[in-house]
């Protein structure tokens, strides 16, 4: 029972928990945190505890009784009070506007370990229980929970709402939302009621998510061959929300931009991310909620699988989005993080509640999803799906660990799944496969790849795939040893004559590894790229591998530039999105490594990106594809960042028209950010009209995405005063705490010193204001902007007395990145013939 007071921002409540005492004990040990429990109310059956002790750092409550407890089931009862906090965790308040007045709503966010902030409970995923909730709230408000309302009784301004009992579920999935909302409604083929709740007046913007939601429930029911077990599913947009979305059983919560889509004011990339987010959270209704990880060590089962299967779902709803090609973004992000010494295994040991938050990272999500894709492509889609369905049935309403999944897959397919997958989930890192041509063979050798140029001792069972000369002659085998060889046949093309010979390993990037080719194979591959023989996915893998090898100084910077040059004329969104990642990083490192050459290198990068950008122009074309609509802002933004004068001027021109006529067709939602960024290139403390105009848009706009687009660029400038003014907005009510990271991400390398000083000066305030994962954003965005060992030492010293368990790992990773950049820059500085290569490429027609 919970009674939130939305004016005083407090709540009171009581629990009655049925506990089975299975062995003699005098103690009950459960979780509770920041709750004031009424000691005299505590009873186990008729017994009163003689000791009540809180261990605040552990979120643990110990009840000691005078005598041993009777064996068997008993009821534990207590009353308690708490505060509806502002930290977006536990039971918290979020603010919204209604009829020009500010109002509070009460919301829960329990994952990972914050149910204990709302009511005393056994707050671990394996302690599943049936929940029966009662809420006492103002009569005019919408009050939602996991289950439908069983009955409601009204006493004037107050109503008591009783919800139906839930099936067995973990505490982190319990949810409550109390506030003013309206909704749109749909129905699955099996008759499950689905609703999307929004702020009053915005329910139209919930229609897209509703459609994806209904389709997702239909698809997953078939994929897992298991019905959705609850009578209803609600999805709610919450104005203050720490994560992107949360899969609470039957009551999924979202930050507004992750759920709402407005035909007039939202961009194509926002449409796509709403679809992915909804598909991800609804996948959890099976994978996570119905079958739950046994302990946080297996979090990746939840997040990796939901990430993977959300792509499967979205690919089936929107085949034209090429979402599996875009998925390589996840794979390359994970490969990047996992090449650090400070990475961690997918299955990571968790000893304390405070360690859980930081494993919601690219290893659990993106490496997790990538190794599932690797396994699925090794086993085949059909066999894989069948096995997943039987796993789901075997562990429904219960818990499972990683090995349980492997056991089912192994039994269903007869393949050595456990041995294979254990090498990927129990050790951190991944291999680089060195491929060398020797006569008619290709010799391959695996070695752990680390970005700092060293090599670790890991060994993997690697599903090797190779294509040669064409895509219909693929080969597959498992590399179990350090070294092995593959025979290349005549279908690879004629080596002697050169020209049509090529071979590529890790076809379509399904494997979680990199490949380093010898000179002959590399030249053949570059030739295959330039003669348009490679698939989109292989184009991405080829550039990302060489990029990483160049950072590790296993390949020259010049060879990276030469390969990149082979991508001029590329027109695909996903490929160019990767090229953009690489060019951004190159522009940054070359400014530090070779200032004299940095200008020329920028010109070269512009040369690579300019022709597809000119083809697309600023104006959308009728009937163009979703991917082209997303490509346009990608390229325009990249050109603006690289300082391309013509693009900047055009952006400023369009912005000026936009400020006079906000409805102008010259600046639709998709290209606005590029124009905003162009404006920021010229503003300074003495010439701030553009900046003021942007701030005005931020203040006045009612549309979530437009506001965030402005927020994302306000710190993107070189002027010290402006950057500081923007960063300080973080401490004002103009920027919700949930959005601070968006401002931080805009900081450019040119502003790193100012930003770092700002961070140091404000650290006390920052660490007081931002809880949990939100604080890591400050470290993660500012620290990696540096590229010198001296700076790494200084930063490390600053944090030596200021670390907290919550961001230790992130700090380590960020510092390692700084040292890696420093080493990369050093290598570039001393690379002979680099200037020559740059000039040569610039001079090419
Ligand atoms: N279970 C997470 C939400 C979460 C994240 C809870 C971190 C606690 C800590 C949810 O399923 C999720 O993964 N949300 C993602 C969005 C998704 C599309 C990748 C998020 O919040 O970014
Ligand atoms: Zn998730």
TrEMBL record:
Protein's name according to its UniProt entry: Aminopeptidase
Active-site residues per Swiss-Prot or TrEMBL entry: 281
UniProt topology in membrane: Peripheral membrane protein
BP-aspect Gene Ontology terms: peptide catabolic process; proteolysis
Co-factor: note: Binds 1 zinc ion per subunit.
Coiled-coil positions: none
Record-annotated Peptidase M1 membrane alanine aminopeptidase domain positions: 208-424
């Amino acid at each position: 029972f919970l009674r939130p007071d939305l004016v005083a921002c407090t709540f009171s409540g009581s629990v009655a928990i049925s506990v089975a005492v299975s062995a003699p004990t005098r103690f009950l040990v459960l979780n509770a945190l920041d709750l004031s429990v009424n000691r005299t109310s505590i009873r186990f059956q008729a017994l009163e505890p003689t000791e009540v002790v809180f261990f605040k750092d552990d979120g643990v409550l110990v009840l000691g009784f005078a005598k041993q407890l009777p064996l068997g089931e008993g009821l534990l009862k207590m009353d308690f009070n708490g505060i509806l906090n502002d930290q977006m965790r536990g039971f918290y308040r979020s603010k919204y506007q209604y009829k020009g007045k500010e109002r509070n709503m009460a919301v829960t966010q329990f994952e990972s370990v914050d149910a204990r902030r709302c009511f005393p409970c056994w707050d671990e995923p394996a302690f599943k229980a049936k929940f029966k909730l009662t809420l006492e709230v103002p009569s005019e408000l919408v009050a939602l929970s996991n289950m439908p309302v069983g009955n409601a009784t009204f006493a004037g301004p107050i109503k008591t709402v009783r919800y139906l009992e839930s099936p067995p579920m973990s505490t982190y999935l319990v949810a409550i939302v109390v506030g003013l909302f309206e909704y749109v409604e749909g129905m699955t083929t099996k008759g499950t009621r689905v609703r999307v709740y929004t702020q009053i007046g915005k329910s139209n913007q919930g229609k897209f998510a509703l459609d994806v939601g209904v389709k997702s429930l239909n698809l997953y029911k078939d994929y897992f061959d298991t019905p959705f077990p609850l009578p209803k599913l609600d999805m709610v947009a919450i104005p203050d929300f720490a994560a992107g979305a949360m899969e609470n059983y039957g009551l999924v919560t979202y930050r507004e931009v992750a759920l709402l889509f407005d035909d007039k004011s939202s961009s194509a990339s926002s449409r796509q991310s709403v679809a992915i987010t909804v598909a991800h959270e609804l996948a959890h209704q099976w994978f996570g909620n119905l079958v739950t990880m046994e302990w946080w060590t297996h979090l990746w089962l939840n997040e990796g699988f939901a990430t993977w299967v959300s792509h499967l779902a979205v690919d089936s709803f929107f085949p034209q989005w090429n979402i599996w090609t875009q998925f390589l973004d996840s794979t390359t992000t994970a490969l990047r993080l996992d090449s650090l010494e400070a990475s961690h295994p997918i299955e990571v040991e968790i000893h304390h509640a405070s360690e859980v938050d930081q494993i919601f990272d690219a290893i659990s999500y993106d490496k997790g999803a990538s190794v599932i894709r690797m396994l699925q492509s090794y086993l085949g889609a059909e066999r894989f799906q069948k096995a997943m369905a039987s796993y789901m049935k075997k562990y429904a309403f219960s818990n499972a660990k990683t090995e349980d999944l492997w056991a089912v897959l192994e039994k269903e397919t007869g393949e050595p799944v456990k041995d294979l997958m254990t090498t990927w989930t129990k050790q951190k890192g991944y291999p680089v496969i060195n491929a060398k041509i020797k006569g008619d063979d290709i010799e391959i050798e695996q070695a752990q790849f680390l970005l700092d140029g060293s090599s670790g001792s890991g060994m993997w069972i690697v599903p090797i795939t190779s294509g040669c000369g064409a895509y219909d002659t693929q080969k597959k085998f498992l590399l179990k040893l350090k070294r092995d060889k593959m025979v290349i046949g005549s279908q690879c093309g004629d080596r002697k004559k050169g020209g049509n010979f090529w071979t590529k390993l890790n076809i379509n990037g399904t494997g979680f590894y990199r490949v380093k080719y010898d000179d002959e194979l590399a030249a053949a591959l570059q030739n295959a790229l330039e003669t348009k023989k490679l698939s989109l996915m292989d184009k991405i893998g080829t550039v990302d591998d060489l990029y990483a090898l160049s950072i590790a100084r296993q390949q020259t910077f010049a060879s990276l530039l030469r390969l990149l040059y082979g991508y001029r004329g590329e027109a695909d969104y996903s490929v160019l999105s990767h090229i953009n990642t690489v060019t951004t990083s190159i522009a940054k490192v070359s400014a530090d490594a070779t200032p004299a050459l940095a200008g020329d290198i920028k010109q070269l990068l512009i040369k690579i990106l300019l022709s597809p950008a000119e083809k697309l122009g600023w104006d959308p074309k009728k009937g163009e594809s979703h991917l082209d609509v997303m490509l346009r802002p990608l390229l325009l933004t990249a050109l603006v960042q690289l300082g391309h004068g013509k693009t900047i001027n055009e952006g400023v021109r369009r912005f000026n028209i936009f400020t006079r006529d906000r409805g102008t067709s010259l600046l639709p939602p998709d290209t606005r950010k590029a124009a905003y960024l162009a404006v920021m290139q010229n503003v300074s403390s003495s010439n701030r009209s553009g900046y003021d105009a942007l701030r005005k848009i931020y203040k006045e706009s009612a549309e979530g995405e437009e506001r965030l687009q402005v927020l994302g660029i306000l710190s993107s400038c070189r002027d010290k005063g402006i950057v500081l003014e923007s960063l300080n907005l973080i401490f004002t009510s103009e920027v919700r705490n949930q959005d601070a990271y968006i401002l931080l991400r805009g900081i450019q390398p040119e502003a790193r010193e100012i930003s770092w000083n700002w961070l140091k000066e404000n650290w006390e305030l920052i660490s007081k204001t931002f809880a949990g994962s939100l604080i890591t954003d400050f470290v993660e965005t500012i620290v990696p902007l540096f590229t010198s060992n001296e700076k790494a030492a200084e930063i490390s010293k600053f944090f030596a007395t200021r670390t907290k368990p919550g961001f230790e790992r992130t700090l380590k990773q960020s510092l390692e990145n700084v040292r890696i950049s420093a080493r990369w820059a050093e290598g570039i500085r001393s690379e002979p013939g680099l200037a020559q290569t740059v000039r040569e490429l610039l001079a090419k027609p």
